[in-house]
Amino acid sequence: MICVAGLAVILCLGAVQRPTTAQTYAPPGRLVEVDGRQMHLHSSGEGGPTVVLVGGGGAFSIDWDLVQQALAKTTRVCSYDRAGLGRSDPGPADETVEQTVSDLHMLLQSAPEKAPYVLVGASIGGIYIRAYQHAYPDEVVGLVFVNSSRRVGTAVGGEMGLLWEWSEEDIRSKYPLPSSAKGAAPSQIGEPFDRLAPELQAARLWLDIRRWETGDPGVAGPESLVSWRREFIREFEETDAEATFPLGELPVVVLSSSGRISEPNRERQLRDRTDAAVGLDILSSNSLYTVAPESGHEIHLYQPDLVVRALVEMVVAIRDDVPLAGASGRP
Predict the structure, then answer these.
(1) What is the dotted CATH code of the domain comprising 29-175+221-318?
(2) pTM score, two decimals?
């Protein structure tokens, strides 16, 4: 069983009626052809830079609705469903870093959505936006990490450990998954998705049910986890090897529901690498760290106003070509 910290959906009693399989819900955006497949892209607002919202594991584009509606008053903003999620067709290697970055690049080009981009990654989406910036640095003018998780765990031989602690061989050894890994069919909306508008809650439950019905853990492979591990290791090595900021003055905002690194424990915490936000704020000398102490993992659903304020501040700073207000500039 794969356990991604903070990504579990806690089921609670909801007012949304369970959709039937015959029901369909119109997508809020449009379908764009990417490498012979259809991918769902929802764009709104005008102006630049274009903000691109990248969800966490198993997330849908509609999960960003509370942020997107408000942010569209300031600039162009896009959310999308990764391959195999929501209304996007599956691809050959869904959720791997390589396919995800390639898909997003082709999607933005084909739409077309005008660069440059501010990339926003929630939870595991943080490694996708970092990898995109690494692959296409000239297209990216800012990165925003929303509780971007480095605490990704998996069980090997009955023992639980953080993803990068296992070798690739260890990870591959746990596949194929047993049929019991599929679990029960979704039956109701859970927190924090009950903060979405009722019609979006119904659509989200329908998408969850559809994904459950078509999913088969017995044919799932380890490719995505192996890909995540490689990207984590690359990012760790980059941060560890750099005496100065790897991204220079590129604007970076870190939103976290946990505290920032304390100076007396800084070296120990950086070596530990287990906190969701450790090391992200030292990517750039132009970084801003904001804590959302009352938030659950999905800050964009628990405290969307905080996310919107941070994004508006970044957009305005980029337009005015000035540093982020309150940027630390610390090594």
Answers:
(1) 3.40.50.1820
(2) 0.89
